[in-house]
Amino acid sequence: MLRRSSGILLHITSLPSSYGIGDLGPWAYKFADFLAQSGQRYWQILPLNPIDPVYGNSPYHSISAFANNLLLLSPDLLLQDGFLSEGELKNVPDFHQRRVDYNQVIAYKKNLFRSAYDRFKADEHPDYRHFDAENAYWLDDFALFTAVKEYFSKQAWSDWTQEIRDRQPEALRAMREQLRESIEMEKFLQYVFFKQWFSLKEYCNQRDIQLFGDMPIYVDYDSVDVWKDPALFKLNSDKRPSFVAGVPPDYFSETGQRWGNPVYQWDALKESSYAWWMQRIKRNLLYFDLMRIDHFRGLVAYWEIAADEKTAINGKWVEAPAEDFFTVLLENFPDAPIIAEDLGIITPDVQEVMNRFGFPGMKVLLFAFGDDLATNPYIPHNHIKNCVLYTGTHDNNTVRGWYEHEATSEIKQKLIRYLGHAVSLEDVHWEFIRCAMMSVADMVIFPMQDILGLGEEDRMNRPSTVKGNWEWRLLPGEVTPSLSHKLMDMTGLYGRH
């Protein structure tokens, strides 16, 4: 599945644009050109699903496993397609170039979307009707869910009136009629996303750039997926979670992590041959050339916490039907290009499933210098071919930030000893990139912040914090021909072009 290659991790929100947030417009195409000119084959992004300020705008928390984040729509392309006028794009707020102000962006784009929909509904669009029919299996309920949620002042679906909460057919019909305009506008915007995304995907693929996506293992409780199919999740008689997901106490947290997502009712999923999961995998494989499953180990065994517990301490491991699930998955999608996120404490049963089904795992170079250099699994001489190697991920500090603020003097000495020469703060990111390029790992991925040698203030996410994350943006002047040339030279030198 993998070949010797390299790529860059940069979420769409991090692209430059005039509208406060990266989008699928001109700069997405410029970045694809930069990747091609730099000899890179992969563009890795974070999940595309809708985000919510309630969850700190995290792409790993969403109201839908199938819908897309409308904030990524390009106003420039809406103008190009005749859905906006030039006058409507004249008075753009003075957005911050380096950080995304999500509340400001949401308020601005909401008005643009209303104008675009008003123009759209004035004409007939046969290709929209085709999209609507092809995606009805998720789109109908999602559009209804978003409209009803707005109608109930954004309350969680479990707090809606009982007949709507329980999806009584007559009540749903009445709401579809009452909220028809809001429902149709949501469908239209998802259609526009579909068009903009696949135009970009075609452009990338023509340049031998593969789009590398990411799929969270869980969905949020307050999501259309749980509202539509509550039997697929462990809920009580009031349709509230009886158990939630997380991870047990470890070196990083004495109380573990209580994520709060409802856990799956695997017996019910198995009865349908995992139909919901198969639809989800199919959707992701349509959008991406390669896909990472976040928290892969939860598909083998997951940490289940009683919903009334305040921490993850008293949870327990529960086995999932991994062998049967992945057998069905590969029967439906032979040679599915899936990467397993296998970081953290990985038990032998998880490794056995990965080996049996041939799923590549991950290595992170930032983890390589904390333990015994001879045996550390993240150190380059212990790498294997069938894996994806990162300098760091979206959850880590940047290489420079790590070296400046996290690496102890002992770790720095280990790094110097391993490399065989002194390391400066200004060049440490290139030392890591070169070290990764030399590895036998088939694929290496670099966060754009590490390509640029940026510091701690430019990291994408700080786990266990809820504010200030997912905001970093690339500046237009940071993508230069000299940077492209340096990457191309190194990519060719180590046989990754």
The whole-number mean of residue pLDDT values reads 96
Number of helices in the DSSP assignment: 18
The largest β sheet comes out as: 8 strands, parallel
Query: Cα distance, first to last residue?
Result: 16 Å
Biggest sheet, spatial arrangement of strands: 9-6-3-2-1-12-11-10
Number of strands: 12
Overall geometric form? globular
Poorly predicted segments? none
N-to-C SSE string, H for helix and E for strand: EHEHHHHHHHEHEEHHEEEHEHEEHHHEHH
Strand content: 5-15%
Radius of gyration: 23 Å
Oligomer: single chain
Q: Classify the helix fraction into a percent range.
A: 25-40%
- Structural class call reads alpha/beta
Explain what this protein looks like in three dimensions.
The chain has 18 helices and twelve strands. It is α/β, with parallel strands linked by helices. The strands form two sheets. It has an eight-stranded parallel sheet. The chain has a four-stranded antiparallel sheet with strand order 5-4-7-8, with no helix packed on it. Helix 4 packs across helix 5 and helix 5 crosses helix 8. The radius of gyration is 23 Å and the shape is globular. It starts with a strand and ends with a helix. The model has no long low-confidence stretch (mean pLDDT 96).
